[in-house]
């Protein structure tokens, strides 16, 4: 009640009384402050959602219009810098390559180097052809540069059957404990089979037995042995390599049901 009296004496004395308070079902409007304040004001709470046309939507529309005006006049270029700004690889703005011109905002009326939006179709096509001819080698150079940087830092590991590997826990959701404290990699596990160059099959144990045993190569890495001089108390678990069946013939373990053909 004390906070409600402060709002009554300080805030409402400057703003005046309000008849309705439109809420979006927030928990703040269920607190004791608002309950006591409505008793003092003798007002009524009107709940509003975005899916009911009978409620008041003027506040949402006013806020949306205000945000657009602030972006256009006060924060011009902050949120549109990626689309309408100059890039090093293209030597143009991405919006020019896509539309042929940069969108005109109210602040741009003071600039003299704007592109005329009322051009004919032939002039627009000629301009876009020149832009594409100039930007194609830039895009090719950017693609090759990105591919070169990726190939340097991402190398395909050389794996074979029987190696000890660690598996990334990025896609594991059944590991106990808080997610922030879980290890980045789990293991070590033994490779049982290779499915081409992009997938491996391992023998899981513990709480990971319920997951499928096949994983992509991008989620695994080799286990490196620790230095005994730096870490004398670290004990490494020794895993036995399971016997590998070299024969390609499959064996029938159990027949669940028989069916006679007529």
TrEMBL record:
Residues 1-71 form the Integrase catalytic domain. The keyword RNA-binding applies. Transmembrane segments: none annotated. GO terms for molecular function: RNA binding. One of its GO terms (cellular component) is nucleus. GO terms for biological process: DNA integration. The keyword RNA-binding applies. InterPro entries: Integrase_cat-core, Retrovirus_Pol_polyprotein, RNaseH-like_sf, RNaseH_sf. Keywords: RNA-binding. PANTHER family: PROTEIN CBG26694, PROTEIN NYNRIN-LIKE. This is Integrase catalytic domain-containing protein. It comes from Austropuccinia psidii MF-1.
